[in-house]
Amino acid sequence: MKKGSDFESFVHYVYSSIISLEDNGVLVSKNAVITGRSTKHEIDVYYEFTKANIVHRVAIECKDYKNPVSKGRVTEFYGKISDIDNLTGVIVTRAGYQSGAKAFAEHYGIKILTIDDLPTLPEILSLQLSQAFLPHENVIGQPFWSLMETRDGNVTGTYVCAPSDSTEKIIPLFYSKRVAEKYLSCIEDKHAVVRGVNQQQLKALLTMIEKNGQNDVGFVVLPFVADSPDKWMAISVSLEQLKEDYVVNG
Prior knowledge:
It is a single chain. Helix content is about 35%, strand content about 30%. The protein has helices spanning about 5-20, 70-80, 100-105, 120-135, 175-185, 200-210, 240-245; strands at about 25-35, 40-50, 55-65, 85-95, 110-115, 145-150, 155-160, 170-175, 190-195, 215-220, 235. Strand 1 (about 25-35) and strand 2 form a beta hairpin. Helix 2 runs parallel beside helix 3 (about 100-105). The two termini are about 40 Å apart.
């Protein structure tokens, strides 16, 4: 057996051991073949679990190199995981990473670990869960964009609500990033940022509201740009309408 295969088996063993303590419903497999949008991909170590009716997937690439992993290798891995829906990427290596590889991975939300990080693997579970609820700055809206609260430069997980005279919390949704950015400039909220909401995050948001019985939360869609907050056209949309018309099942 080649050294790389030994390393891959070791990573799989560690992940399986830790995950089995967290949740008996987690699927873990080695050398898994996953069908992407354009082709099939082999994943060194793959795990999948369901929380709040949302399927979470993580692909782990094992790099048993003598030299630090290059940006090119991370780019290749990004091409693989970006072809598969709702997939978080993790790379594990013995030798570390070149500076360009680190910058690329950070920009595209790929978790990079070394063999010394393996004892802290439970954080990967929290990473995947947080990504389901906290849109990354590079997430593309599918189909919506939103405003999210920030604290100390980090997204808190709270969606910014539209100004309202009622006690109901109204979450504004936008069809484009440009419209969302224009709205943010109108309300002048310095503690908010524009974030795309993909299908996984939209499902997670709706499921969380539904399961928590948050009847005081509503939604409006703002399709067009206006010059001031009081002139924006807002279309009220129910949770059920969002689920029926905007959530893609499958």
